[in-house]
Amino acid sequence: MAGTQEEVYRASTYAPVNIAVIKYWGKKNVELNTPTNSSLSVTLSQDDLRTHTTALCSVETAKDSLTLNGKDQDISGARTQACFRELRALRKELESKDASLPKLADMKLKIVSENNFPTAAGLASSAAGFAALVRAIANLYQLPSSPADLSRIARQGSGSACRSLFGGYSAWEQGSQADGSDSAAYEVAPASHWPEMRAAILVASAEKKDVSSTAGMQLTVATSPLFQERIKNVVPKRMKAMEKAVHDRDFESFAALTMKDSNNFHACCMDTFPPIFYMNSTSHAAIRLCDAINAAADKTVCAYTFDAGPNAVVYYLAENETQVAGAIKAVLGDKTGWEDKRGQSIKAAGTPLPNT
Ligand code: ADP
Ligand code: DP6
Ligand code: CO
């Protein structure tokens, strides 16, 4: 049955942001969007930072389209197209087995998305964005796909998105298959394993970055000798140590690895030619502030990390809320957030918000 003229099919979903503690930076295969190294992240609560995406289709829909926060986006890029193609192929398969299903795979898709936090500012909008896009379409198509299947598809939209299909602590295994079929995320531990984890976000700038993650990492791969050291000798050991720190709920180790990996990633950006500066003087002040908080506590109670942007994410445990979030608020006042999210603590993601 082809859809009737008036029928509009739709599905919506939320997806969370994830902030890596062992960073993905570098593509092994640009077409497949596979990485030069595995990575590990904490997914943040969707109550605070989230993308909401609706996917619609009908026989009347004239062309594929995507609007983000009300603005039309260019969807001609190979990565968005790969997500559409893979999801349509899975829907086709269902339709070929059951002739009573409406022929959604032949209809054009209209995607409407909203981020409730700054886009392209180093707060993982591409992660939440592509995780939401893929899951919204999968819901629309009523695909029986697992989070791991959707993760492999979302990876092709934006690498970091593959980790946002999971809550809690997740890792992206770089994979070894030439076709990228084993390059996807898996759950290292659910949020309930270590529910005391908190993140404070210090917004140094909500402006769009001048070098996108995609462009930045390709320049680093092409020009940085330090990066070769990172992927060969630094990250593999850190991945193992970080998985262990999460399993053992060992905050001291988690924090040391997190800060060192952020520093190493930004050193590689600096070693890129011409150099890329994602951090600014406010970012440097945030690092000094975390150092001072840890020194005053006489142990490691907080860990900073910076994605490809100037904004700090500071991880700490709930028991140290006053020491960490309190100190951040006291020093930075209302400069720590955007709109209503000023320096507040954000939980590691627990129960996903329902599809709506
Ligand atoms: P960020 O640090 O925010 O992840 P990136 O440079 O990795 O920045 O990616 C930003 C790009 O991700 C945006 O310019 C846009 O193309 C895409 N993106 C962000 N949010 C969404 C969304 N909700 N839906 C689809 N694409 C999105
Ligand atoms: C620094 O996933 O945004 O945030 O795959 O090109 O879309 P593309 O890149 P993206 O890169 C994220 C880089 C990072 C580290 C991380 O999230 O692991
Ligand atoms: Co991104």
Question: How would you explain this protein's 3D organization?
Answer:
The protein is α+β, with helices and mostly antiparallel strands. 37% of the residues lie in helices and 22% in strands. It has 8 helices and 15 strands. The protein has helices spanning 78-97, 125-140, 147-157, 213-223, 225-247, 251-271, 281-297, 321-332, and strands spanning 9-16, 18-22, 27-29, 34-35, 39-43, 50-58, 65-68, 71-72, 108-115, 169-173, 184-189, 197-202, 302-306, 312-317, 345-347. The strands form 4 sheets. Strands 1-6-9-7-8 form a 5-stranded mixed beta sheet, covered by helices on one side. A 4-stranded antiparallel beta sheet has the order 2-5-10-11. Helix 1 (78-97) runs parallel beside helix 2 (125-140), helix 1 runs antiparallel to helix 3 (147-157) and helix 2 (125-140) crosses helix 3. The longest helix has 23 residues, at 225-247. The radius of gyration is 20 Å and the shape is globular. The protein starts with 8 loop residues before the first strand and ends in a 9-residue tail after the last strand. Mean pLDDT is 92; it is low at 338-343 and 350-354. It binds adenosine-5'-diphosphate, ligand DP6 and cobalt (II) ion. InterPro entries: GHMP_kinase_C_sf, Mev_decarb, Mev_diP_decarb, MVD-like_N, Mvd1_C, Ribosomal_Su5_D2-typ_SF, Ribsml_uS5_D2-typ_fold_subgr. Residues 15-185 form the Diphosphomevalonate decarboxylase-like N-terminal domain. It comes from Acrodontium crateriforme. GO terms for molecular function: ATP binding; diphosphomevalonate decarboxylase activity.
